[in-house]
Write a structure and sequence with these properties.
Blueprint (H helix, E strand, L loop, with lengths): L8 E7 L9 E5 L5 E5 L9 E6 L10 E13 L2 E6 L6 E9 L2 E7 L1 H7 L16 E6 L13 E6 L6 E5 L2 E9 L1 H10 L1 H10 L3 E7 L13 H14 L5 E4 L2 H29 L21 H10 L12 H13 L1
Parallel strand pairs: 9-10, 12-13, 13-14
Antiparallel strand pairs: 1-2, 1-5, 2-3, 3-4, 4-8, 5-6, 6-7, 7-8, 9-11, 11-12
């Protein structure tokens, strides 16, 4: 198939009129009679963009066009479509047709995101801090949470007061990690939300903000001044130095870092409690840093109901749980 050099064609990106779809954009690729995909973003800047192929009839007649860029080359190469746009930056990308979890999927990637997908590292599988099974609280609002596959982790869904992943010890929330993609980091920073999020994290004994991107990519931003983002991050770090801002290359590495951080926090918290019990509080101070830790979020009814069934207790499918069920749950957690 020849490249598209004989006539002027365009890559067109429009908003998806289906408000219920998780993929907010439509892209029309000028290959053959045209290909249409639902897409999660307008360009694979920080990560590969998931695309769902649809019939060309789904392209609306009154499409709300977000971007229309002339195409220098659009050619199929095996199970991929190589796309070269007629602009200086963000001009090369590829639509890859592959399979995941037994079904066909399409990912839109750029040379940078393709390189980041394979950072040439092998993640360790050894237990963090020697903990046989680490219980990690996952915020119930987290849409696509880390799964910590291959690690000794038990995930519990709860509404966290701050952060996306937390660690509770003796009924107190002692550590949390907030994760951000670069796009989310920039939007929350410029919109002012990140300041409040970091302030909430700073109230915990241990907390961190992790960004799924290299710091160098801050200076490649084209929709906001890079200096504005760099200055904002520096201000956050100076104002709340107890909340480190950590940049990593990929989502997989961010997941690994989060696991190791929370495991280290648990080991530290246990040591801190034991030392305070042996030594006693210093004159005029609290027992230790854990004394000011907020109460851990209460378990949901669904979580207690699932535990009760696994323990052989009879519970209704809906409605409130009996007081004795809650009492059994609290007795179980107190023994751990």
């Amino acid at each position: 198939m020849r490249e598209w050099e004989t006539r002027r064609v365009h890559l067109t990106i429009a908003r998806n009129p289906d408000s219920h779809s998780r993929l907010p954009y439509l892209i029309r690729v000028p290959l053959g009679s045209g290909l249409v995909f639902r897409a999660g973003d307008t360009w694979p800047r920080t990560a590969a963009v998931y695309c769902h192929p649809v019939d060309t009839a789904e392209w609306p007649a009154d499409a709300e066009v977000v971007e229309r860029v002339a195409v220098r080359s659009c050619v199929r190469r095996g199970a991929a479509i190589d796309l070269v746009l007629d602009r200086v930056r963000e001009n090369r990308s590829q639509l890859v047709f592959t399979r995941a979890r037994g079904r066909e999927v399409v990912f839109w990637q750029s040379p940078r995101t393709r390189k980041q997908a394979r950072p040439n590292v092998r993640l360790p599988t050894a237990r963090a801090a020697g903990i046989p099974e680490l219980e990690i609280l996952v915020d119930s609002h987290e849409r696509y949470p880390y799964r910590f596959a291959g690690q000794q982790v038990r995930l519990v869904r709860r509404a966290l007061p701050c952060g996306d992943y937390g660690l509770a010890l003796d009924g107190r929330l002692v550590a949390a990690v907030e994760r951000k993609s670069l796009a989310d980091l920039v939007s929350s920073l410029t919109g002012g939300k990140l300041r409040y999020a970091v302030a909430d994290l700073a109230a915990l004994p241990r907390a961190a903000l992790i960004v799924e991107e290299r710091y160098s990519q801050v200076f490649t931003l084209d929709r906001v001044r890079p200096s504005t983002v760099a200055d904002g991050l520096a201000e956050l770090q100076v104002r709340w130095p107890n909340v480190p801002i950590v940049f990593v290359d990929t989502r997989a590495l961010a997941e690994e870092w989060t696991y190791r951080f929370l495991a280290a926090a648990q080991a530290w918290a246990q040591t801190e409690d034991e030392a305070a019990a042996r030594i006693g509080p210093a004159l005029g101070t609290a027992d230790n840093e854990l004394s000011g830790a907020p109460a851990a979020p209460a378990p949901s009814t669904a979580e207690v109901r699932a535990w009760a069934r696994s323990a052989g207790l009879t519970v209704p499918d809906k409605g409130r749980l009996r007081p004795e069920i809650w009492a059994a749950w609290h007795a179980r957690t107190a023994d751990q």
